[in-house]
Design goal:
135 residues; 5 strands; S16 Ribosomal Protein, Chain: A; alpha+beta
Length: 135
């Protein structure tokens, strides 16, 4: 079974967690499939917490049938609550394709000349090449 859980790092009394996708049989801090973010419960002396998650990848793995641990479920809920403006704006914004301006002949001419010059061997390069030996 695939699970989304925390893998502990850091040192004594200074924990740092990675949010990972792993097989349930793997050790807690061992092998994992993908890292989806991190959680630092002791970010600074003021007690602030630092949480970064890749919600798109979490949704992908949940769609694939992955289970979340209780703590990761709380962290995802907290992260979604803190980021409603960004996700709502992204969903509400219409997806429109923008076309790049067509290249003019003046802009394209120097580039094509440079490419052609790069393909041509120079006289020095031709002189340096040793003649192929026939057997």
């Amino acid at each position: 079974m695939i699970v989304i859980r925390l893998a502990r790092g850091g040192r004594n009394k200074k924990p740092f967690y990675r949010v990972v996708v792993a097989d349930k049989r793997f050790p807690r801090d061992g092998r994992f499939i993908e890292r989806l973010g991190y959680y630092n419960p002791v970010f600074n002396l003021a007690g602030d917490q630092d949480l970064r998650l890749d919600i798109e990848r979490i949704d992908y793995w949940l769609g694939q049938g992955a289970q979340t641990s209780a703590r990761v479920k709380q962290l995802i809920k907290r992260h979604r609550k803190a980021q409603p403006v960004a996700t709502a704006a992204a969903k509400a914004a219409p997806k429109t394709a923008t076309k790049a301006a067509p290249k003019t002949a003046a802009k394209a001419a120097p580039k094509t000349a440079a490419k052609a010059a790069a393909k041509k061997p120079t006289a020095k390069a031709a002189a340096k090449k040793p003649a192929a030996k026939k057997k």
